[in-house]
Write a structure and sequence with these properties.
This protein has about 190 residues and is an all-alpha fold. It has two domains: about 90 residues, Orthogonal Bundle (Rna Polymerase Sigma Factor, Chain: A), CATH 1.10.1740.10; about 80 residues, PhyR, sigma-like (SL) domain (Butyryl-CoA Dehydrogenase, subunit A, domain 3, Up-down Bundle). About 70% of the residues lie in helices and about 0% in strands. It is globular, with a radius of gyration of 18 Å. The termini are far apart.
């Protein structure tokens, strides 16, 4: 029996997904249910980072082609299959940015921004300084921006973030809180 992942509704759903993956390793046409389940979320993930619909469609297509080609390398690690797909998507977005096929975009929602400021232990007067935070975020390295994005604007668990970035859950937490410290210092310096 497969241990229950917090990202799936039930152990049965996790087992069913793994059966589809195993069947897809033998017959690529069996991959269709996974494609249908994850295409939209992967597309949204890419589109949020590129803000170019055509490029997002192209990159999403690349993600699923690579996933299908490399499906034999997938091993269950207690997190959903989607984490593996997001890792591929992250890599493909990086490649597109590096080749200047897309421009990097950061979509920020107000609730995530307020949570980020609260986690950075910014006092109430700083919470109104959203522009300062936006400026400070723009000064971060790309990996740091993605960690903040996943944690505060996509509400991903540290375990899933760790899997996407190929690090431990604890390492993901440490990195996020170090970034929060950087942001707090930057905001205070702007003040």
């Amino acid at each position: 029996m497969i241990p229950l992942s917090p990202y799936h509704v039930s152990a049965e759903a996790m087992e069913q997904e793994l059966q589809i993956i195993e069947a897809s390793k033998k017959d690529p046409s069996a991959f269709r249910p996974l494609y249908e389940k994850y295409h939209e979320p992967i597309f949204r993930y890419i589109y949020q980072r590129s803000d170019d619909k055509d490029a997002a469609f192209d990159i999403t297509q690349q993600v699923f082609i690579k996933a299908l080609i490399n499906l034999n390398r997938f091993t269950f690690k207690g997190v959903p299959f989607s984490s593996w797909l997001y890792r591929i998507a992250k890599s493909e977005v990086y490649k597109a940015i590096e080749k200047n096929k897309v421009q990097r975009t950061l979509n920020i929602d107000i609730d995530g921004l307020k949570e980020l400021l609260q986690e950075a232990e910014a006092d109430e007067s700083l919470i109104s300084k959203e522009k300062s935070l936006t400026l400070c975020i723009s000064q971060l390295q790309e990996t740091d921006i993605q960690l903040i994005e996943m944690r505060f604007f996509e509400n991903r668990a540290f375990k899933e973030i760790g899997h996407i970035f190929e690090m431990t859950e604890n390492n993901a937490k440490v990195k996020v809180y170090r970034i929060l410290d950087k942001l707090k210092k930057c905001i205070l310096a702007i003040r």
